Amino acid sequence: MAKVLMKGNEAIGEAAIRAGCLNYFAYPITPQSEVAEYLSKRLPEVGGTFLQGESEVAVGYMIFGASGAGERVMTTSSSPGISLMSEALSYIAAAHCPAVFVNIVRGGPGLGGILPSQGDYFQATKGGGHGDYHLLVLAPDGVQEAVEMTMQAFTLAEKYRNPVMVMGDGMIGQMMEPVEFPDDLKTEPTNKDAWATNGMSTRKSKTPNLVKSLFLDSAELNRNNLDLKAKYEQMKKEDVQYELYNADGDYQILIASYGTMSRVCRTAIDMLKAEGIEAAMFRPKTLFPFPEKQVYDAAVKDSCKCVISIEMSMGQMVEDVQRCVMGKKPVEFYGECGGEIPSPEKIIEIVKELIG
Amino acid sequence: MLPDISGIIIIAGNYGSGKSETAVNLAAVSRRAGKRVKITDLDLVNPYFRSREAQKPLADMGVEVVLPDSKYMQADLPILTSAVADMIKNPAQVTILDAGGDDAGVTVLAALADVLKKSHVKLLQVINPLRPFTNDVQGCLKMKAQIEAAAKLPVTGLICNANLLDETTPQIIYDGYNLVTRVSEATGLNIEFITASTRLLPQLDPERILCPILPIDRLLAPPWIRT
């Protein structure tokens, strides 16, 4: 298929359709409302359903319902909306249901603002809702990757029967780039007769299924937590994704960044190279599972004097980078918030200061 | 041949058709031609990549940029400054109104209907055939009907803005021009101009394009783009 010019939000909507998702429930919020706008036009054309909930709390449980019934389902929202959905996310994770949540992050905390931000890293990777659960979190750096990761999110959600989050920011949602869609996802939701409440009349099994997150027996609840933990350990082994940029030579500094921020860092690294200064970038594409070993290996390279995490936040991913580098190299931080995005020139200035 | 349009010009089209980039570049070209130019950003729908982001380079050239109070510039609110109605009543030689996307984006024009019906306005539909929903004649006609119904004004002309950003080729521009020519034949509307990035202009065969060409210098780019 030829390339088309799409906004990130529209491309995410189209990617969901091509992944076979015919159920999309959402509540509008800037800067992701175009996903709903797009899917409200497109889903009826392919026999799908778009339903606007009365709030994000309701939407979270509509997702739980569809997911528990074995349907491919997605919602999209932005930061305050994801906070409202966080209770449902915890329930969905506890009940081992697959679902795709997209967060097009805006500035917070509180109602914050409508401009791009990476302030929801903690919320996405460390919880958000209550209890011992994790989302698998994918962080695209542009419209093409947003398409690929949205499609992949359904496969991963079904592989682990766990909610998967695609986390972009306002820039990823709003910017336009040429995109090419991969082949449609042809697989069916896997093994759903074994666990989903998809209706006895359509099932191949005679045993009724129960989807639940309530475990009043302590041993049973402990066992459910161990089952969840085993999935997270499997994710760490099998589904870590990352990119290294300009990391083949002897770089003096390693920049850790993801999403929109990594696009700016890439420009800064190219500009530094033109001046004869070598800087490399480590870009996690999965924020959970975090590429722990990969950032360590890149940081401990002899030529590398220090690591800096550059974020559109006040310092969130930097805690994972510090944890993984284990004190082997100094880990610095620079960030801006509220829709301010560090410029390539600012990054160059900071890098030059750090490497002397 | 550069576009030479005067009067009150409303730029409309579907989301992401390139309305704002077209509007700010038309303002710049008109100003460079020595005309007095006013421009306003009427995009009350989409908060990103709006023509207001080009305020400084336009103001530096002497284009009058009419915008809401700066403290509301990033507000997620449909603010229509009264200065816009004044601008229509007292137009410059070239007065450009950059509307928002789709039918929702031009709904604001209905609020200005009283002043607009007293003026002779051009409502131009920007088409990028590489965008969803306007990749064929039928899609463009549907968009036209939706814009007209919401704006309560007829579309009076077409602009072809065929592009894939940095991946645009001359063939993309020719193909887009062909499609918009068919829209022109179906509607009887004139193609006011097509656009082409300044990078591609020297590669275009002037024999193949029978209307003016607006050169585009990208003013509304993401923050990592450096040329």
How does this model look, in words?
Chain B: It comes from Desulfobacter latus. Chain B: Pfam families: CbiA. The complex is a heterodimer of chains A (356) and B (227). Chain A has 356 residues and is α/β, with parallel strands linked by helices. Chain A has 2 domains: 4-238, 3-Layer(aba) Sandwich (Rossmann fold); 243-355, Rossmann fold, CATH 3.40.50.920. Helices cover 42% and strands 19% of the residues of chain A. Chain A is built from 12 helices and 14 strands. In chain A, α6 links the parallel β6 and β7 (163-169). Chain A is globular and about 70 Å long. The termini of chain A are far apart. The model of chain A has no long low-confidence stretch (mean pLDDT 96). Chain B has 227 residues and is an alpha/beta fold. Chain B has a single domain (7-216), classed as Rossmann fold. In chain B, α6 crosses α7. Chain B has an 8-stranded parallel beta sheet with strand order 3-2-4-1-5-6-7-8, with helices on both faces. The chains are: A alpha/beta (356), B alpha/beta (227). At the A-B interface, β1, α2, α7, β8 and α9 of A face loops of B.
